[in-house]
Protein 1
Amino acid sequence: MAHVIVPKPRKIVIINPGHGRKDPGCVPKENGEHIFYNEKMVTEREIVWEVSKHMKKEINDNSMETNLEAAISVQLMYGEDYEHDSPGERPDLAEKVKIPVKKLNEQGYDVVFHISLHCDCVENPSAEDATMYYWDPNDEKIARQILMKYGENVVMNGEQIFFGKRSQPVQQRGLKVLVTAKQLGVAAAYIELGFLSSPLDRKWLIDPECQKRMAWVLSSEIINIYADKAV
Ligand SMILES: [Zn+2]
């Protein structure tokens, strides 16, 4: 009998940079004034986009050895496809999660993980640090593992930047993106990289070197969890 080799579907991770062209997300202010960096207004959208781009590169650069690829799903929020949304209309988030997952499945990919990137913003400027959300109890372990690595290894000038200041850094929450991913059978996590409303966190969130470090830590851990090392 002929032996038929069915290729295993390539595993793929969706990185979802929160917010979009018409939705900047958190726009921090200090003393009532907007904050600028390199003459550009600081917004959550730009920060998560930069980190997402670096993550995609990190994972794709390693995809030959790890059998894991990354897609930044620009349909989700940011990028060309966002223009298709009617002006003033908030995109249907559930659809924005479903469309790329279905498309990737049709292309023969196995979507193993969906991660959303955001920054926190609150009134109290002393609230600091990263927070990770999950919905499906099966995803709690992965959420904890990634947040732990992020806290331990996002180190700048010898200092852990986003670690140890929150009492509950990992929480279960029914965020729509997480619930939708669960319905599609995709593991999912949602990270608030830090507080843009905190002057201390913000200093690092807008720092290009720190953004690269954040991306490197997050993608290394995702590769660690999901990649089959090539034989
Ligand atoms: Zn956000």
Protein 2
Amino acid sequence: MKFKLSLLGDQGVGKTSLVRRYLDDSFSDKYKSTIGVKISKKQIKHLSQAYDMVIWDVEGKGGYTPIPKQYLGGTKLGIIVVDFSQQGQLDTVIEHSERLLEFSPDAEILVALSKCDLVENLDSKFENFISKIKTIDCEVKHTGKTSSKLNFGIEELFDEAIKAIVG
Ligand SMILES: Nc1nc2c(ncn2[C@@H]2O[C@H](COP(=O)(O)OP(=O)(O)OP(=O)(O)O)[C@@H](O)[C@H]2O)c(=O)[nH]1
Ligand SMILES: [Mg+2]
């Protein structure tokens, strides 16, 4: 089975870094903004079934700036990346989920809280975020703490993503 996974979120939140860590276990402190979209593929196995995951790493856009329909259309899994070291995280989730669901109404949504290595009192902030996210309209299947820099939470996040569509 082949499916499309899209990463979306504001500029510079760490979408490309998540993909790079997941696909080739590397990280760079240098920031090179994605222009348009970068598509990668990964074959995965889940419960002895093989899947072709096509990852769309979409350029960061905030503030309801339009994103071409073909970037987000046909998405089975949407990972909304939120920089957890910055403010305004809940609004970001709402904004990007609305944008995704407009083009892919059946997409499952996950939230990746990125750059958690920079966050003090991470656990209490996480609890707080989880209680707030339950109050928003769209259904979020999973929210994970991640750091591409220190390499935590990423494998788990993609595992949860796959579980969200195959059970
Ligand atoms: N400390 C820390 N920095 C990170 C982490 N992930 C990414 N960064 C840094 O954040 C900057 C932006 O990372 P990118 O992965 O390029 O962000 P992006 O969301 O793909 O950006 P656009 O393509 O412009 O939308 C880079 O300088 C990264 O090194 C992280 O987990 N921790
Ligand atoms: Mg990028």
Protein 3
Amino acid sequence: MKKSMTVLTLALSCSLALAGCGSKDSSGGSGSSSAPSSAPSAGTSMSPGTGGSASTDVKEVKVSAKNFTFSPNEIRVKEGQKVKLTLDNTEGMHGLAIPDFKVDLQKPGTVEFTADKKGEHEFHCSVMCGAGHADMKGKIIVE
Ligand SMILES: [Cu+2]
């Protein structure tokens, strides 16, 4: 008698546990459905953002300007290379012009050009920034 009762209670608790599991599953399901929705969005924003093709096609160069120098003041690129040049002013107000490539940034920003002319090309500050303005020069070496 007692044994059969235990079996019954076990069976009952089992079915209860199953029911509990079922309800947990559905709530877990809705919870997990919101979690992956945020995960793939982060993943998809990552993969096309810096596509391998874009980073290999375009050479990113960052130049910082201060009174009265550019850093770096010598940039080497390959002939035909697309260059994405970003100017950042760390001190004072400066521009960056590369007459040979018709580039003229009058303020911090980004410009893209193709280094399609071999040789050395001067770049210089294009904003009158003070006493050292004329000395703010650098060169792009296209090889
Ligand atoms: Cu200047």
Protein 4
Amino acid sequence: MTSLLIRGGTIVRPTGDERADLLVDEGIIREIFIRTTGQQKLLAADQTIDANGQLLFPGFIDCHVHLREPGMEQKGTMETESQSAVCGGVTTVCDMPNTNPPTVSVAALREKIRIAENVAACDIRFFFGVTQSEHLQELQRMYADPSLSSLAGRCCGVKLYIDHSTGNQKAAQGVAEEAFRVCADTRLPLVAHCEDPVLNARAAKLNTRDDISAHSQIRAPESEQRAIVTAVELAKRFGTHLHVAHLSTRRGLELVGQAKKDGLAITCEVAPHHLFLSTEDYATLGALGKMNPPLRTPEHSEALWEGVENGTVDCMASDHAPHTLEEKQVLPALTAPSGVPGVETMIPLLLTVAAGRWPHPRPRPFQPKLKYADIRRLCFDNPNRIFSLRQTMIEQGTAANLVLVHPGEEWEIHGAELHSKCGWTPYEGWRVTGRATVVGRW
Ligand SMILES: [Zn+2]
């Protein structure tokens, strides 16, 4: 392996930016020379990258993706979707359990880890799914048996679907409580998909419309809010670390904010599609804008941006969920599967806002604020801590896991040029400012 010198880039840190020269050798950051007065230290390497005017981040983390393998390889594989991640500056992903078979047993987790061994570019971690008591017994067995510790080391938490989504993963009654208790005992974060099944079922029954925007009415904001109330109560009762997945409503955000003020171990993530898209986009997207929880009205997006700004939102996670275009274009549109790809576009969309621009072709009535350091917090520091991923942070002597960002590069998003197997994007034709290239993960 050759040595690499990255000269003059700006390392984005929570404590402030630092302009530096980085020497990487044998996959290890050997030297970081901070340029305080603009002077250079003469470092030599086999290969040199001139990073003047560019930003250096640790490889970004996307803590919510669906890689679709095994069982749904027509939508995506670990190989194709990891490639998509890396091309978007993401070098660590946390894969959800609703594959076929679902990741609800030690054997299923072992099989996923085996497939992931062939994917070098991206570090894949796995959530353990729970829909029945037996799954919790499997999880406890894995954490109790020292011979299974290497498997447990790849498990980043438990995913609990409070309502069913793709893969029919609705948790059986009573199992939810048990899951909160077991997660508290094993000190694993419990990631909850918060939508209330009873409210959704009732609304679906009453629905008489067949246009795609009815999806947002059937899965109304109240459904998410009620589920969050339930989840927070359970977390409080058992002392569980609750992580609310893809938070999408103003009230939901307030509930999480209040729980944090009350001192509970509660964190949350927001998905780019809930920040950049709204119910107004159904007209152009059709079923390509169908996901769970659904698109909301713009006032909810505005609230989520406020949550990003004031720190109530801990993580940005794409909920990357590819489906083939054929699957998405069935009629009636309401029967199309829920989920959109997003792992490759998340960082560019955020970089665009950090550059002071808005990527959506339709202007916004409000101007969201985001700094490059916020992107690091949302897409590296917080998910790294919350899910105990132990990724290194651009320090001397640590493994190189680096992303170089060209903050001023303008380009257009086209599904055909992205690397997900599905070949489409809800952000088709959007102009973005900022591109992330992975320098390396060794
Ligand atoms: Zn998901």
